[in-house]
Amino acid sequence: MAAYVNRTISMMAGDGPHITMNNGTHRVNMSNVDSPLQIFVRAKKKINDIFIEIDDYVKDAVTFMHAVAGDSSIASAQDLTNVEAYVSKVQAIREVLKRDHMKVAFFGRTSNGKSTVINAMLHDKILPSGIGHTTNCFLQVEGSDTNESFMRTEGSEEKLSVQSVSQLGHALCATRLQECSLVHVYWPRELCALLRDDVVLVDSPGVDVTPNLDEWIDKYCLDADVFVLVANAESTLMIAEKNFFHKVSTKISQPNIFILNNRWDASASEPEYMDQVRSQHANRCVDFLSRELRVCTPKEAEERIFFISAKEALLTRMREREKPVSSPILADGHQIRYFEFVDFERKFEECISQSAVRTKFAQHSRRGKNIAAEVMSALEQVYNTACEMKASKVEKQRILQEQLTAIEEQLTSITRQMKEKIGKMVESVENKVSLTLSQEIRRLSALVDEYDTPFRTERSALEQYKRALHRHVESGLGSRLKKRLSADIGHEMDEAQKEMADRMYTILPVHKRAAAASVIMPHQQPFEVLYRLNCDNLCADFHEDLTFRFSYGITALIQRFQGKNTNKIALKNPPAYTPIPAVMGPPAATTDVVRLSNGGAAGAGAMGPLSAEEWGMVSRFALSALTSQGTMGGLLLSGLLLKTVGWRVVVVTGAVYGALYAYERLTWTAKAQERVFKRQYVAHASKKLRLIVDLTSANCSHQVQQELSTMFARLCRLIDEATTEMDSELSEVREAITRLEQASTSAKKLRNKANYLSHELQLFDDAFLNN
Ligand code: GDP
What we know:
By secondary structure, the protein is α/β, with parallel strands linked by helices. The protein has helices at residues 2-12, 37-69, 77-99, 114-121, 165-174, 193-196, 213-221, 239-251, 271-292, 298-302, 310-320, 334-442, 444-450, 459-507, 510-520, 535-538, 554-572, 574-577, 587-598, 612-627, 632-645, 647-667, 670-691, 693-769, and strands at residues 19-22, 25-28, 102-107, 138-144, 150-153, 160-161, 182-188, 199-203, 226-232, 257-262, 305-307.
């Protein structure tokens, strides 16, 4: 009773819904901004928004996993499948969330006024009420998103048109329905605050008409947030009513039950018993809820029991909406009953809102947190893997860079050293070839002497002899040079090549070392000096002079005398008198030089150290003696000799001279001619070969240089290939690092977003659940 009084006072003080008094009528403000139902509405919107974000997040995570799953070992196909599975899970939760609503189920005996209570709460006559309209099926009233009202029977998509309550009643009567079947009644949300705020109201057949209470509960009660027992205040709670809630409380833990003692307007006719009856009913109801059902404490139970008149409440609201009403006369105390009805609505709204938020959204919030945590864990794993892989790639990059720098530095140093080495070798080979060739030229006469083919002076035989001698000199000289140079230089070459390969070998990466060995392998054959001694060409201008010349002839004596003096003077004054042969001089000059060295007659162009005057006098004597014995010169010379030494000496000398002449003339045989020929040939060939000493040694050194440079270049190419491979490997590693960096950054962002979503859900819990 105290609770009742307090409630009434508080309602009168305006601590509840907005009620205005206007000319004796009550007007309920349809604005539901302050309605407790808004808690559910806001919670639903909030959690919906969070799940939209979770949906986006999971899709982003899947896109990311797809991107990284291609990249070998960052994420496995299984990780991708696991994350993908969350997309459908989130979709399913969002679908459930869309359908989530607050559900209140009304139970009680037939004609207790369940439909009338629902209509009063909806501010309109939506459900048919009255004895004639009682139906034996479940009616679920819910908001329609369109402006039309219609109904749908269970399992059918067909919209049955319902424009008015009478039509609905007619439609229900026309449809043969099972007792336990459900009919959905869709009513425009805009016409009704409760429907707008996602409240679904379920009217049931009377609990007194069915034995199938279990089936009812299983089908329509398990998801109900609030149960309203509409009792008849004119009688006491019946066993049938109590039984039903006993069953409910066994199937649902702590159901929220309100008891409406309807038809309280009847008490107005017996005001003297009103308090007594009310107290009796209230006590029984408190007892039923707290002791029998044990769903709440007695104090809480007092807050769940109301004495109302649904009929009056509906009437009042219909009036407010200026709708035609059949019975405008209200009994005494209707205002207080109406306040209590409004109080019930308020308590009911608070209860259903909190209960629905807790039962429905707590579960979604929990699942949302789990999903965020699981996706976060998958991303954490990807992040860690990406970081580890990145670290190893960075290490690899460092090693590669160091190797490349080291190779570059060592290559520069080796190249410099090898250049110096090759330079020195080239110089040494050049000197060696030059020296050896000079030595061989010096012993050319021995080589020529070894040639032992019959010598004949006929022109054709002589030409043939010459050609064969060329071949002999070529091959003899060639084989000697080869013997002396190739082994020596080859050894040096091998050493140099070995050193080169060894040095390069150390800077080559391991897998390239076998290739380096193969670069050297083909050169197992000893090095051979290549040169070209073409005597045919070299001695093409060689013309032998096989004319007989008496050794003690005047000219020869003069020549000898001149040669001795020349040597003396040449020694005294070398620059002025040393004959300088032209390197590529005209054939005539060359021939003269050959003749001189041959000991033959002096050439026309040879100049002695005597003065021109002396030369003139001696020449004249000599020539006159040689060319004309009977001339004046000869006479003069004979006379001069006779006069000075006596005729005997002259005769003896003449005899000896003649004998010498005769001797030489007789010994001027083919053999002697061959010797002269060979001497002339040796002199000529030596001179010509000396001319090509520099060229040949330069060629040989060039050959060595070529050989070593080629090998060095081949080794460098190997290094180049290796560094190119390392460069491409380095750029691959760099690309991988960039990819891994992007992957780890994205994984980190997504991981942080999961934290953010978990935090959002926690805020949601704090705002709507943990109070
Ligand atoms: P239901 O079968 O439980 O749905 O009961 P109804 O809502 O159809 O009501 C049955 C009858 O009781 C109707 O004629 C209503 O007008 C009437 N009725 C409902 N509530 C009240 C009330 O508070 N006072 C009075 N006097 N009659 C009521």
